[in-house]
Amino acid sequence: MGDSMQTITKIKSGIKNSLITALELLNVRLEMAKLEFNEQKEQLIFILISSLFGFLLLLFAGFSLFFALNAWLPEPQKFSVFASISVGCLFVVIVLAALIIRAIRRQRGFLDSTLKELKLDIAAIRQSINAKHN
């Protein structure tokens, strides 16, 4: 009778330890996921602000080009100023587009490493439980 109680106590202790370990691992993984979500949010804000700024510069470049075309014949100096503004804005838009594309490409692996590590933790806990029962 005492031997079976001791065995039950060991099993309960093993299950309790496994559960505590699983909860600690879950907590760590959730903290990692929180960090990745914050990074994702910052990237999204950067993408939205860059897109809006790029759109405004493109709009400004278009208006500048219209003014340059309007001023082409009578005053050649005005044309060069507005054309330079248009070229400068278009250059900035191209740079912003490249930055946006690069930021989007970095998002493809979002949470992949955390999910893989969580699966490895679950597999390790299962092995630990199976080993204790055998």
TrEMBL record:
The keyword Transmembrane helix applies. Keywords: Membrane, Transmembrane, Transmembrane helix. It comes from the Bacteria. The chain crosses the membrane at residues 44-73, 79-101. Pfam families: Phage_holin_3_6. This is Phage holin family protein. It comes from Testudinibacter aquarius.
